[in-house]
């Protein structure tokens, strides 16, 4: 029972705030106890009555703040309950007028009994119609939810289109640079101190591809000059391969004044 009281008090705090919630709950208990004693007689099961009747909020309409026709946050009459009461009175007046027109010679008791019976049938039919509408609404929502779920499953199961990547561009091949020999004139005498590093490398690259350049240089400038230009090891290797090792083919000096 204590847990139920705490639950209802917390609910009231959400509507009316912590300052007013305890008094609202106390007023509710007092009002319902008075109605019980006036209409229902003594309470034989206090705990059961408190849990089932005295403590819980009793909503008479769809308004979340409604408690037996009053709003929990303000204490005013629930507007939805008022609308429902007005509609109920209008329906009863309409049914009573129809019964009176259909039974002009009937007594007041007979007309009242007929009105109550017709009113019950009208209210029941209206309730069944509303229930049917709600059922159709829930069915449409369930169908829409199922359709969305099926669409999601189909979408997840659908084959993924392969992503076509563009063909890779051909790699740009850097042009092979020929040794820088354009500024070297084979017909002019070579002076080592006048050659740039690029020119020396150009001569060595050409000699690596064509050993005849080494022989031509030795024939024109001498073996020592060839060793200085092409390196001693490379000249020795060329001579060894040709069988002319230690052959002196000239004595022209490298540097010319």
Task: Summarize this structure briefly.
With 257 residues, the chain is mainly α.
What does this structure look like?
The protein is mainly α and 257 residues long. Among the domains are: 2-76, no CATH class; 78-118; 192-242, no CATH class. Helices cover 62% and strands 2% of the residues. The protein has nine helices and two strands. It has helices at 2-16, 21-40, 46-54, 79-102, 108-157, 197-209, 212-221, 223-230, 232-242, and strands spanning 66-67, 70-71. A two-stranded antiparallel ribbon has the order 1-2. Strand 1 and strand 2 (70-71) form a beta hairpin. The longest helix is centred in the middle third of the chain and has 50 residues, at 108-157. The chain is rod-shaped and about 155 Å long. The model is unreliable at 171-188 and 245-257 (pLDDT under 50).
Give the C-alpha Rg.
Answer: 57 Å
The coarse silhouette is rod-shaped
How much of the sequence lies in strands comes to under 5%
* Euclidean distance between termini CA atoms: 125 Å
Mean pLDDT: 80
Measured as a percent range, the helix fraction is 55-70%
Number of strands: 2
Helix/strand-derived category reads mainly alpha
Written as H for each helix and E for each strand, in order along the chain, the element string is HHHEEHHHHHH
Count of separate DSSP helical elements: 9
Strand arrangement in the largest pleated sheet: 1-2
- Uncertain residue segments: 171-188, 245-257
Q: Characterize the biggest β-sheet.
A: 2 strands, antiparallel
As an assembly, this protein is single chain
């Amino acid at each position: 029972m204590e847990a139920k009281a705490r639950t209802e008090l917390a609910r009231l705090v959400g509507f009316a705030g912590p300052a007013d919630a305890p008094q609202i709950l106390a007023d509710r208990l007092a009002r319902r106890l008075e109605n019980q004693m006036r209409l229902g007689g003594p309470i034989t099961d206090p705990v059961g009555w408190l849990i089932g009747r005295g403590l819980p909020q009793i909503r008479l309409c769809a308004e979340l703040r409604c408690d037996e026709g009053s709003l929990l946050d303000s204490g005013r009459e629930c507007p939805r309950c008022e609308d429902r009461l007005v509609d109920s009175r209008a329906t009863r007046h309409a049914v009573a007028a129809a019964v009176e027109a259909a039974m002009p010679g009937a007594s007041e008791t007979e007309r009242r009994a007929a009105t109550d019976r017709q009113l019950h049938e009208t209210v029941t039919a209206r309730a069944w119609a509303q229930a049917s509408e709600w059922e159709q609404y829930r069915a449409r929502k369930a169908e829409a939810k199922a359709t969305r779920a099926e669409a999601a499953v189909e979408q997840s199961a659908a084959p993924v289109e392969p992503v076509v990547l563009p063909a890779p561009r051909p790699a740009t091949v850097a042009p092979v640079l020929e040794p820088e020999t354009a500024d070297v004139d084979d017909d002019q005498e070579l002076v080592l101190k006048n050659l740039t590093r690029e020119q020396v490398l150009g001569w060595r690259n050409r000699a690596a591809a064509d050993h005849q350049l080494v022989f031509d240089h030795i024939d024109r400038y001498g073996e020592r000059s060839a060793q200085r230009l092409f390196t001693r090891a490379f000249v020795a290797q060329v001579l060894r391969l040709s069988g002319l090792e230690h052959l002196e083919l000239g004595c022209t000096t490298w540097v010319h004044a």
